[in-house]
Amino acid sequence: MKVIALGCDHAGFDLMQEVISYLQDNNIEFKNFGTYDKQSCDYPVFAGRVARSVLSGECERGVLICGTGIGITIAANRYKGIRAANCANVFMAKACREHNDANILGMGGRVIGTGTAIEILKAFLETEFSQGERHIRRINEMDDMENIEK
Q: Please, where are the H alpha helices in 9-101?
């Protein structure tokens, strides 16, 4: 596994510290794009930093955390080529990797506990894309949708 991009807002800060501890304990390289404290801040800033690092190839995958995981995941999905999935359990984390080749994991710091979050993270990092024909076809369909004019 290459480098993992990390980003959170103030509501995701505490859970991100647990994610960082897990990555350090398991010798998984990461780059922290902030936030670096609990001061109120805007999650789109950090979603953008993580999304750009994944798109550029600087980082292989990303992890984003805000209060619910919803806003920061939506913000990341505004970037063409990003497939961010907000996951609340291990099944979702495995499925988003196997079926959708998700490249960013979103989680909610105010809605899931640390133990569950770490299990979700492990599933996201350890699960590979199945590359089945139907999954590739659906990803291509989503990519085509990005080219539709608004």
A: 13-25, 43-56, 70-76, 90-98
Encoding tokens for residue 145?
A: 């949708």
Q: For residue 31, give the nearest of 76, 66, 61, 74 by alpha carbon.
A: 61
Task: Output the six-digit token pair for 14.
Answer: 């505490």
Give every CB contact of residue 37 below 8 A, 6+ residues apart in sequence: 10, 13
What is the strand order of the sheet 4-8 is part of? Answer: 30-32, 4-8, 61-66, 104-108, 84-86
Query: What is the tens place of the pLDDT at every residue in 15-33?
Result: 999 999 999 999 999 999 9
The catalytic residues are 66, 99
Q: Give me the DSSP letters along 108-123.
A: ETTTS-HHHHHHHHHH
Q: What pTM was estimated for this model as a whole? A: 0.92
Q: Measure the CA–CA gap between 77 and 68, rounded to whole angstroms.
A: 16
Q: Phi then psi for 87, rounded to 5 degrees?
A: -120, 135
- Note whether 71 and 43 are within 8 A (CB): yes
